[in-house]
Amino acid sequence: MKKRSSRRVTLSISFLSVLLFAFGAEAKTKIVTTTPDFAAVAREIGGDRVEVSSLAKGIQDPHFIDAKPSFIRLLNQADLLIDGGADLEVGWLPPLLENSRNGKIQTGAPGRIVAATGVNLLQIPTRPVERSQGDVHPLGNPHYMLDPENGKVVGEQVAATLCRLDSRSCDQYRKNQTAFNQHLDQKMTKWMEKLAPYRGTKIITYHDSWPYFAERFGLIVVGHVEPKPGIPPSPGHLEALVDLITREKPKVILMEPYFSEQAPRFLAQKTGIPVLVLPPSVAPEAGINSYFDLFDQDIDRLADTLMKAEKKP
After folding, report:
1. Order of strands across the sheet with 220-224?
2. Per-residue model confidence (pLDDT) at position 50
3. Can you name the residues that pair with 203 across neighbouring β-strands?
């Protein structure tokens, strides 16, 4: 009799353990982000209380992402969606959201963060935008995560929203946010020191993705390989860029890994300007696992390229 009771107790404990494990797994807030940058910040703030998935990969152009059925499933099960806003994902996110049938993450719902909110966006057009201007964003340039200070702005939004969705863990989210900001401040000091010798250096970028980065670190963007956002360069535009490089003497062409190197290499061949391919986003598939890793790698490689360019006769 005693043996049977002992077995019941053991079974009850096992059953409770399973229940607790299941409850713990379900208790995690499911976060879906459009890009890995937002996912990286969400993991810093949410810690082990969240489960985070990014729809786009860091090696993909965030303007053009192929929608997959798996994206709809992720969105359907999400408690929180973080997107960039400023029309960054306007070409692919709306139909996915509509098909997700998840009211928790629709525009204005408690489980939705449009991260551009609160960011001081650059390049907001002062005149009506026309299609002939290329892929101009009427709400401002959406590549603001390339300024580390904007990571703090997004971190505040994530912490505040998680506190509303999961108030019992709010203290931990705020502690994580404080640690994230302190780590960013420490890193920022080093990043600023590393690029300080190159303040005022002129650069060219392929796409207009780097104005926030350039402003933060004191670089001057004098031209783009694309004549207009999203428009490939014509032979005439490339010849004009050769004249501009000869006249303004920028030290490097920055480009993202998902663009063709053909035009930048042509300019390098004609003028001797170096071409530097830099990831514009966190990309675990390329070994860039955190928001800090992104700037560590980009700033190290840029400083090295500019140092070599300065030494050239």
Report:
1. 220-224, 202-205, 253-255, 275-277
2. 98
3. 221
